[in-house]
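One-letter codes give the sequence; the fold follows as tokens. An example follows:
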Amino acid sequence: MENLYRIKEINLTSMNDVLYKESFELFLKRTDEKSIIKRFIFENIPIHKNMDFLDIGGGDGSLASMISKSVGTTLVIEPNKKFYRQLLKRKMIRARNEKWENARMNNSFDFILAAYVTTYFPKTKRKQLIKKMYDSLRPGGFILILSIDSTRGSWRKIHTYFYKLMGYAHKSSDDAVKQIAREYKATSKSFKTHVIAKNTNEMLKILGFDFYKYPKYFPKFSEHLRKFLKRYLDEDKSVTLEMVHNAYIITKK
């Protein structure tokens, strides 16, 4: 997946936009992530009404909108123009249409959220861009970086299997983020969410929002993926894939 609630930096003109959109919307219908992530944030970050909140790569603002009701101000940095237009329609949210690496920050914040965005940072700039978050944080503030675990969870396993079929030496950004987070003495926590599809065909369609960006290989290896999914079949023929999320909480004294 590498991403929740947003389409990020994928070049949509290089794939079938309609299929991608349908897959992503179906994913959102079949996952319990939204409620679990919201609960995790409110249980682990001391949200309060005087807080200035920054969401980096906030997508359409689904998560930021929930948090905005409990903080003082909310700013979302979102590079995708389609999501930016959606953000402009949301109340209590200010939005800027730009990449984090290009954003000039004149203000500091009490809480900065980077949910599943570090995987889209240029590898050579990842450390620098996380430092930019830290520099934008007020003393006593919190950064929450969320990412998908590099090895655990059946969602990760089928991705790893697909990359292997393609002959693609994929390296998870989570391993790099974990190392950087240690330099800030971050608190690390994990939680699980699930994607439950009605059958293998529906799960393949859901997986499309990650795999349609490989138009040469996804159709070619669909049957291999279908067979792989059989190990996760439930008695009613539904398919459940588990995601393991890692959370890195950085505080600034």
In short: Residues 38 and 67 are 8 Å apart (CA to CA).
